[in-house]
Queue: 4 jobs
Job 1
Amino acid sequence: MSFLKRARKENLISLAMDLGENPAPTFSKIDLVSLIQGNKHYNEDDAKFMLETVVTEREERLKMEADRERLKMEVEKERMKMEFELEKLRMTSDISKNPKHEKPSCYELTKTVPSFDSKDGDITLFLSLFERQAKRAQIDTKDWVSGLLMLMPSDIVQLIARESEENFDNYNYIKSVLLKRFKLSPEEFRKKFLHHQKNSEKSWREFTFEISNYFQEWIEGLTIDSFEKLKNLIITDQLKRRAPFEAKDHFLDEWTKLVSPSELADKLDKYELVRSDRKYETKRKQQFNPIEKYTESNQRTVRHKPFTGTWNARNMGYPSRNGESKQMHKFSCYSCGLEGHTSRFCPSKAPQRGKLNPTVQGNVITTTEPKREDASTILTAEINVPVEVAADVMELETVQVKLGSRTMTGIIDSGAQISVIREDFTSGIK
């Protein structure tokens, strides 16, 4: 049954008809599968084999139709080529009979006009060059289509071959078809006019002709037919170059059609007015919803609040998982209350930090220079052995710790930001 669901609708219709059913074109795939399975002659293996046969026949039929169409196009192209050769022979025969009335041949255009490139070529520039060379060679207008076909690639020849017989020899009609198919927009001609570069293989006269043609197509596409309109177009183009990118995106649909400087200026002024109003409203919202500023006092208050939420909710100002972010708190000193350092590195304790620990000081060797005796210098070395000296408890920060009915003084460890008490004080806690 799964092979029926994977089959295409056209193949299911053919299979149902082979089984003697008469499915309607409006049937869905589910209806067709139900219709096939409900047939009295339905057998899964036979149906699968018949479906494969239907698919194979359909693919062969499509392939034959494609080959037939391609062969038809080749025959048509060969016929046109033969007609051209016959026309050339007829013209040669007429010239031999009447040498005084020699008729120009379209074949001469292949020597002066390059073939058209449908991917990178400019159809307007090509047709302009073709018409100039055809007039210079004095070729009859009714033969222009034949000469044009000789310079076109096969895909464009096939496009022209689809036209009716009565329009096939009409050059103006064929020209309109090609312009409609390949012609660029006025904006594209403007870009080509501004950014077109000279080819090293071409002369400056050819380059002048190309940019002149681009300019002509640009103004003709915008129906610029007077000096006043041309002046407005140039001024508008300068305004567009200096307009912000946001405005260009805002008026994107009509940007290329704007040719009046006053109209463009009004649109830009309205756009900037609306943007300034929105910026003012945004600033007012920010004033009425200011971000909470943490001072030294409320930072210490927040730091010592009991921890009741998740870690991310009190994580020193780091963003929490739900996307909210808080201002990061700075370290504060327990000794002086200032921010930016801890009690261990407090500047007020700088004199004490210069003193050595009594245990370490026992290994220090000092020298003294006593009074001179008998014109000689006597040096005395004193060596101190390590002795146990009680630390100055008064310099440590303490806090009262209460556990049940017992109260004891604990030492605040500023490095770990926790309170330290003796081990025997908590020995009874499990």
Note: Confidence is low (pLDDT under 50) at residues 291-305, 309-326, 363-368.
Job 2
Amino acid sequence: MPSIDMKLELVTLIACDVDAEVFTSDKMQERFESLFRIYDDQITFQMFKSFRRVRISFSTPEAAARARIELHESEFNGSKLTLYFAQVQNTGEDVDKAYLAPPQPVKQFLISPPSSPPVGVVVHVCESETEEEENEARPKMKIVQTRRPDSPPKVYN
């Protein structure tokens, strides 16, 4: 695999398995947010209640790294808090050129026969009587009946 030169700005953490009270109680949410506000004043939170996750965006990568190091697997409201860095999604322009890509689409249609004959095509119809005469001249073959082979002898023990 070729080495990829990427400059990632790791400024976003994902908190997993967050206590359900954080999403329902304002006091608990303020307590949760205060854990991270120590590391950065310009922090933003996005709550994902159905996934029990919180997206925490920091202003600098250093603040995010410090918060991850100090708060990962720490206790919060009786449950273990797990923190992960969010992955950066590459746009179409950032895709590494070292990998194979599908060819550029040149033709945007299927190759199939036309629905009607093209203009200018002459259709030749054979109306020869010799074909009909040949079919009548040949007699129909009869199926010859043959005798069924004898069954193998029965062996009694």
Note: The radius of gyration is 40 Å.
Job 3
Amino acid sequence: RNSHSNIINFPTFQPSNLPNLPTFQPSNLPTFQPSSLPLLLLDAYHPNLYGGTGHVADWGMAASIARRYPIMLAGSLTPENVAEAIRVVQPWGVDVSSGVERQKGKKDHEKVRALMAAVRNVNAVQGAEKAAYSYEHSA
């Protein structure tokens, strides 16, 4: 993972045959046409670490970016906080790694199952809320 920015990282996975992709500080995020930008990956920032910092991303700032662009939210997402992160930020998706590990590099299957259940639950609730809103406003 390669990430360099202030407050929120924009890390990229780098296969060895690709050049480094740009990263930006949120205050210097270029203006993109939404159709020209496939996805932004937002992560928490730590000046001495690249990705997997153990810090939660700034969800308020991520939400403001998510209103303009599709984002994948990362930053210490766990079974306990992923539903709230989805509710607040409304990301296109989430990127989870250390939040479901029992030790560095070793995934905890129960944590993965709990995280997936939390994501499914918040998606079901949001889907029901959207359907109710749509029904109320179509009548």
Note: The helical segments are 59-66, 82-89, 109-138.
Job 4
Amino acid sequence: MLKYKILNLICDCIKNKEKKDNLLDKILEMLCKSYNEEKEKFLNEIYKYNSLDYVQNINTKLAKKKFLCFKDLTSETIAFILRLSQTELTYDEHLIIIYSLDKEILQKFLPGIMSYNLSLLLSSNVKKTLSIINYLLVCKLHISDVGKDILYKALINVDRSDLKATSWLCKDLFDDSKLMFFLQNLVLGDCTLDTEEYILLQKQIVFKLKKVNFLTVNERETLFMVINKMATKKILDVTVDFWETMKNLYYSKYNVEYVIELIQMNYTVCSPILELMPINEHSLSIISKSNKIKELKIFIRRIKKPIMEYEILKLYLEKIEIRNEIEIKYNIKELAIKFRNEISEHLFLELEKVYKKTKKSILFENCIEFLKKDVNFDNHVNDIIISCHKLNEIDKNADLKLINDLCLKFLDKIRDETVAYNIFKLFKVEENLTNEDLFYIFDKILYFDLDSSHIRKIKYGVISKIFSYLIKNSKQNNPGKIINQKENKFFLPMLVKLWDEISIIPDEFEIEAVINLLKISIEKSGAFYQKRFFASEIYTYFLKRFTQEKFVTSDLSKYLSFFNFLESVVNCFLLPKENFENIFIYLCNLSCFLEARKVVYKMTVLDSYLAFYILYIQKKVTLPKEFSEKNFENYKISELSAKTAAIVFKNLKN
């Protein structure tokens, strides 16, 4: 048999000290005769160990055909053959001999075999060498800590693309910080890890990010590539600690922009980095409202192709500081022509501000000539409006929608106060208009303002009508209750828009219109306005404005409107004790007005105990005999009768 022939040749060589060349020639001759037919097949079997799919699914028993049997050979003979295979045979023949050894023999000669093959990783036989190393790892041989350290140091210098299978086998071999190297390779190779392995890798990533100053350039780049890959697959756990660390790296000028862009695209994060937000309309809106010019410039520079053209055009008009960045990316003249109608509407909604900013711009010179009104423009419109008034008086069945659309179109282009006043008077807001029509009119007229209290007064009157008909059209019309947001999905946003308009201190001429508008808003929205109203300047202003000392006969209508407003506040708000007391005492001081006494009486009925207690403290009423100062505060509300409320009201009148 072949093994005995080889053994005899080796023994003769050892005994007779013949030259190795003579022995080697004879062994090679035997190998060629015995394995020539299956050599390629055998080598292909070895190379499979460099495939990730193969090592992931391999049978751990390693059932394979043995082409050489070294079982009966002594350790000295096997060592001699291995040495010959390393120094004298071809690399393929060396692979054949290694693959033919049993597991017990491999374990015995593992240090020498591993050292030799690791030394070859720097040569051109990297893939073949990794096949043998992977085969040794699959055999589950015992490797000492020193051996693991040598293996790790050899593998970190190998091209990552060749290490997929090796990294998969090594992740079960290492259990310390060296494990991260192999997990990173697997993630970058699009391999799927276990949940525990992802958690471990995430912890190591955060740990290394905090010590990034001590990493080499290559280690930093690899770390950022791993984070990028995990964020792309949405398997990255973006904790607060992790995100704050990434932000600190960005502000410390580390090259992590592309990583942060991807994270903000795939994850919702707290306090995002504005200039690196995803390039879309929502992000543009957020960053433009922030008024951070530096961040906005960076955001514009990141746009690779012209998108969001209309939004960018509006931004061009509003932000002078970023025009250079926009002009590099966009053709402003073409955009101005393309969005001629849309931008005109936008400009007229913010007439004064936009006109001043764009007066000398390219956009104004080349596109917005149609914004320039001729000398008689307002007069022409006024003539048309007067004609419409006359037609409206004659034809009571005129198309409301048509009239209102006409008013809105003219209102966009009007700067004259008289003409604007006539247009607002032409508006027909009636109950047969749909909610959609009412919403549309509201949005169009809300921000129209020529800095005239006369215009604001009539505008607030139109808005009050809109709200009153919205109330009639709504299924829910119960003052004092929380608004049903599902049924009134447009109404609360309307109130939010309106609040900035009416929460400032009004001119004397428009104060009654503001009060009426606030009243109907509160009746519609319930407690929606409560916190912001009591915290606003207008609340304090009202209490100081409407006093007995400041009353004059010409103000009677305003006072009555204010008392009606306070009645709505009492009915609709869930008054805390402090606000209840302030309003109650305030109205007691105005008890000369019948309407004020009516509101006081309602508050007394609403909370008899608290009202009585306030009056007692303020020395407005004598304490009944059945009460004493000692037990008054512990007195139950349920024990107060209507008679007690009557006593309060009687003393108040006196």
Note: DSSP finds 38 helices and no strands in the chain.
